[in-house]
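Morning F.,

Quick status update on the modeling queue. The single chain you submitted on Monday has been processed. Sequence for confirmation:
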Amino acid sequence: MTNSLFAIYGAYGHTGRLVASELLARDGELLLVGRNAEALRALADELDAGDRVRTSAAAVDDTAALREVMTDADVLIQCAGPFAVTGAPVATAAAEAGCHYVDHALEPHHVKRVFDTAQATAQRTGAVMIPSLSFYGGLGDLLAGAVSDGIAGIDRIVVAYAVNGWRLTTGAKNTATHLFAETERLTFSDGALHAGYVEPRNAVFPFPPPLGPRSMIAPFPSSEVVTVPRHVPVRNIDLMLSTSTFEAKDAFESEHIGAAERAGTDFTVAVQAMWDGGSAAGQLTGHDLWRAGALASVEAAVRIAEGRGPTKTGVLAPGEAFSAEPFLRELVRQGAFTLTLRRGEGGQGGGGGEK
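Structure tokens below.
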């Protein structure tokens, strides 16, 4: 680990705490950031890491405070949702200051906005910015990249999430409420991104055994429609989420449960890639989606800080910034999930079989 300073915005939320603990385990130096100075100091005391941890209060509408944070930090990990509210000010401040940036957003409109508004500034200031490097969005993007590696002319990619036991934080609850109320959805079809009303539908996705076919919500409003086409030659993208995800009676009433109980999630992220005469598939299976997302963002931030990040600056998709399969393999080594990749009949570019 270098002597880089890692800022964590929204540090005292559940994801922020996981990110802070993981960075400390890697000997990182932390700047805990959020709007509540008292909560930041309490977290610093709880982490008990001496002068390796300091705090800085900065609300999203305090431009001067955000600028000071971005000037001090080498890499910022943005954990404070919903990103429809918090995303633009923090991302803008990072781009302008040349501070490397990773966020936990799944909201496609926020992710598109970062690409649209911060790209030129980040390239000018030398910042690497990777939105949506978390469980939803980021892992789907990376898995799509790993499944599709070496394949040209993919007709359709399906990304399907099956989640059991998800307990929403306040930020996640607000994000979910906002996303499912949106009337203008972003979709990717016929090789282009579209915005407009989309009629929700029920679907069935054939997850591999032992999970099997599951009833799904489609389309699921996640950021892969923005990020995947940046590094995968695909014409259509379908995103799905298991209907059982929100069926637990306490899914939306769990803001104040303990960390151990919140960790009790089981998940499978599956990707199918289909083209004329061939198909490929892959899946990630694990427990505790919160930890999986935290590990992904920390791995990206550490690589950037140590000079092992992408060779170009600007706003990048996760699978554009890093070689997808090796990145996922490293997360497997860290215990985030298991990974299976399978090439079907008619496969291109690389060997067949299971890995």
